[in-house]
Q: What sequence folds into this?
């Protein structure tokens, strides 16, 4: 211990004596380790972290996909992750291997509720409400923060309506007021009693930017949300998670659950035919670990996170190469000192330990600074990944895991890249201390040092090419022809169903909304629809065309009013648009897009033809009256997107489902086209809706341009981060080249002085130094170019319409590296050219 303390004190003195070296190493380490720790912070929170619940290792999910939100029909592969309510109840009765089995609403994010506290002047607010089974909190092993949690008795038809409020909502909206517990809230215009507060830190069963504000029993959903599918045996809408009993093996349990599913599905209409019985034999569910909950956000960001891990790792390698070079330079500079110490009797092992202590100390100090960089970097990543989000359950602060990762990485870096320089420096012979090394005209740098520079240049080129490709991909996405006009358009998300409107009231509501909004000065068009282009939403059905019984395919669909196409900028290319006369009492009609015509009519004029969505017998349900261009919906990447559009309140007579069960009639958005930009439009919209009905709240308000831009958030984040890491890698490589070149000049001072003394010109000296620097970079480029071209194969799945590296991007990256090399080399080259021959020889 005494020796260690001596080594630490000596190391601190040596580092203080060379502040330039110390600061350079610390910054290099901080950037390399900080970048990796920032990425690991997000990876740990998003991909590795379990829910804040009791014993997450014993939780198992029935299913392995984040399907959403309500679906029906069979699956060709037979694999299910969403289930009907009666299937959940069947599994609960017949799967004793589970201590608890809970059911969870799949798509609560697409179905906000309206809530207002009774007895207050507060306005109704649109919030997130998730419907869950009564044993939801018990399955997760949670205790209430206050009051009580839901129980099985709450989840019974006819039971008093209750809800549990999230801790975050309790604090944010009501400042932890204890009187909230037991109070009445009007949820979707129905009275609901708040029985308790969820535990602090619990954000629900999945990581989401919009976690639930309220948890409500499933049996309340038909009353509160007028959802017709809650007890429909054909409707798949529930996730299932259970806590298994000790000793239960996953393999046999999966086989048992799959067999139970086949038994539960055997009575469904979908499996009654001969083909259905063949599909029934394939029915199964993949059991997955449920401790992390429903992996919806994890699936979305997993590929991005893994890509960033690789990129940050390359930056760390460049930083480590820099540190190794700096330590080699420092070791060579202290060669005389080490020779003297050896001559006085110091053992080589003792010298190596001393130098290694300095390296580890530097690495640990760099790790501390790196945590600061990691915190700032994680904050930046969160803002890039979730712009505008306020409730993301991911924290930038370093956890114990992140701290261990950062300091473990620091220690590994110090040991790994400190041993070799320390060993090389310790090989100095005592007799070297009596010799004058200045008379030699050595090349100055070792092959190892030059190899490290070549390695840095190669990795920098790879990262710069990657940054260029992701930027090019983003540019292609943003400049795609969406067949839209977003100028002076505003999107208002609404939820009439939560405001208490019945189907018979919708016609009047839509007329009133259109009249009131048109009465506002500056409003040109008022489009009303289920959802809008470039929105994270999609409804689809299988289409059968009359007269073509063997031709059927899936197509997305949207309900819309007469102003809708003009409001979003979609052109009608044939026939007519939806008209004001297309009401619930008139002929059921549809407008289709060009891709729909291409699939079903192959050049034939579609006007006047009929199609349906309830099997071949419904093929006369809708008459095609118009064709619109292929406006982009949901994602630019979705090619061959067949679509049809129907009036807001039309319901074909052949549909077996009663009109009261047709949820598609409820509009989700209003698109307002204005004469000019209107900064106060959101206030006017809220006032207008509140005047129509106080419970008709704004779920979300944004410009059409903002909505479109939001669809590119992921690509924008990756493009910016790859550019950032590419620039960081180039900076580190430039510093590394500068350090090696400057060291070479310092080692060859006498040689350069002799050259100039015998007539060498300054230009020739500059050329000689620059030649050495450029040769190293060219070698790095020769290695980096083929590596970059190969790496494109591994990331092209994340690129848009890019399969190979663009020549301009590669040439641009090469030019950038060369410019950086020239900048790094010219400074020591000019210093070499300014050497005074007399002073150089006198220093001997």
A:
């Amino acid at each position: 211990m005494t020796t260690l303390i001596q080594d630490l004190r000596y190391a601190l003195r040596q580092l203080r004596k060379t502040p330039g070296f110390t600061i350079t190493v610390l910054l290099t380490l901080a950037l390399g380790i900080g970048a990796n720790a920032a990425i690991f912070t997000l990876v740990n929170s998003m991909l590795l972290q379990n829910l804040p619940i009791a014993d997450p290792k014993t939780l198992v999910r029935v299913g392995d996909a984040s399907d959403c939100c309500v679906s029906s029909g069979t699956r060709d592969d037979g694999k299910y992750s969403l289930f009907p309510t009666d299937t959940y109840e069947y599994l609960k009765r017949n799967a004793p291997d589970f201590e608890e089995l809970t059911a969870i609403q799949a798509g609560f994010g697409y179905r906000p509720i309206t809530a207002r506290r009774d007895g207050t002047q507060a306005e109704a607010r649109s919030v997130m409400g998730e419907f869950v089974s009564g044993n939801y909190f018990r399955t997760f092993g949670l205790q209430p923060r206050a009051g009580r949690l839901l129980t099985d008795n709450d989840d019974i038809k006819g039971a008093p309506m209750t809800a549990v409020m999230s801790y975050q909502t309790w604090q944010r909206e009501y400042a932890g007021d204890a009187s909230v517990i037991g109070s009445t809230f009007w949820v979707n215009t129905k009275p609901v009693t708040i029985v308790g507060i969820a535990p602090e830190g619990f954000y629900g069963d999945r990581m989401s930017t919009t976690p639930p504000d309220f948890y409500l029993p499933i049996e309340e959903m038909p009353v509160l949300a007028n959802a017709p599918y809650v007890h429909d045996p054909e409707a798949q809408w529930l996730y299932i998670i259970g806590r298994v009993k000790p000793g239960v093996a996953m393999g046999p349990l999966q086989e048992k659950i799959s067999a139970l599913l086949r038994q539960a599905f055997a009575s469904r209409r979908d499996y009654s035919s001969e083909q259905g019985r063949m599909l029934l034999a394939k029915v199964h569910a993949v059991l997955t670990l449920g401790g992390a909950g429903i992996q919806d956000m994890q699936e979305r960001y997993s590929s991005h996170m893994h890509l960033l891990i690789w990129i940050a790792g390359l930056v760390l390698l460049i930083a480590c190469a820099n540190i190794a070079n700096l330590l080699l330079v420092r070791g060579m500079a202290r060669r005389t000192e080490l020779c003297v110490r050896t001559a006085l009797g110091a053992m080589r092992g003792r010298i190596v330990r001393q130098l290694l202590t300095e390296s580890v100390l530097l690495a640990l100090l760099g790790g501390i600074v790196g945590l600061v960089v990691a915190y700032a970097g994680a904050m930046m990543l969160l803002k890039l990944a979730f712009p505008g989000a306020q409730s993301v359950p991911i924290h930038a602060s370093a956890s114990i895991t992140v701290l261990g990762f950062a300091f473990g990485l620091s220690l590994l870096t110090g040991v790994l890249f400190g041993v070799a320089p320390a060993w090389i420096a310790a090989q100095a012979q005592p007799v070297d201390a009596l010799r004058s090394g200045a008379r030699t005209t050595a090349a100055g740098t070792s092959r190892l040092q030059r190899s490290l520079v070549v390695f840095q240049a190669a990795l920098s080129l790879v990262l710069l090419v990657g940054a260029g490709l992701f930027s090019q991909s983003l540019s292609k996405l943003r400049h795609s022809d969406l067949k839209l006009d977003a100028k002076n358009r505003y999107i208002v998300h609404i939820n009439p169903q939560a405001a208490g409107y019945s189907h018979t009231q919708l016609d009047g509501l839509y007329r009133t909304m259109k009249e009131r909004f048109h009465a506002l000065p500056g409003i040109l068009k008022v489009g009303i629809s289920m959802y809008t282009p470039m929105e994270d939403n999609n409804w689809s059905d299988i289409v059968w065309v009359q007269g073509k019984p063997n031709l059927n395919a899936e197509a997305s669909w949207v309900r819309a009013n007469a102003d809708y196409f003009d409001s979003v900028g979609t052109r009608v290319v044939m026939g007519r648009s939806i008209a004001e006369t297309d009401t619930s009492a008139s002929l059921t009609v549809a407008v289709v897009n060009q891709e729909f015509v291409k699939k079903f009519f192959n050049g034939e004029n579609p006007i006047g033809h009929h199609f349906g969505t309830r099997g071949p017998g419904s093929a006369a349900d809708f008459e095609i009256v118009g064709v619109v261009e292929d406006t982009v919906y949901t994602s630019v990447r979705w090619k061959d997107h067949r679509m049809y559009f129907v009036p807001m309140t039309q319901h074909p007579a052949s549909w077996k489902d009663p009109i009261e069960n047709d949820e598609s009639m409820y509009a989700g958005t209003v698109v307002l086209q204005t004469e000019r930009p209107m900064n106060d439009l959101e206030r006017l919209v809220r006032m207008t809706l509140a005047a129509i009905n106080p419970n008709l709240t704004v779920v979300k308000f944004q410009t059409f341009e903002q909505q479109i831009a939001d669809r590119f958030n992921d690509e924008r984040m990756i493009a910016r981060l790859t550019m950032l890491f590419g620039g960081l890698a180039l900076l580190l490589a430039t510093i590394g080249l500068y350090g090696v070149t400057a060291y070479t000049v310092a080692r060859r001072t006498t040689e350069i002085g002799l050259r100039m003394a015998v007539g060498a010109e300054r230009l020739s000296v500059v050329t000689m130094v620059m030649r050495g620097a450029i040769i190293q970079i060219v070698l790095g480029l020769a290695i980096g170019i083929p590596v970059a071209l190969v790496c494109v194969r591994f990331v092209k799945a994340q690129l848009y319409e890019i399969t190979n590296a663009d020549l301009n991007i590669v040439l641009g990256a090469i030019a950038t590296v060369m410019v950086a090399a020239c900048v790094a080399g010219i400074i020591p080259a000019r210093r070499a050219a300014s050497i005074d021959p007399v002073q150089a020889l006198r220093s001997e």
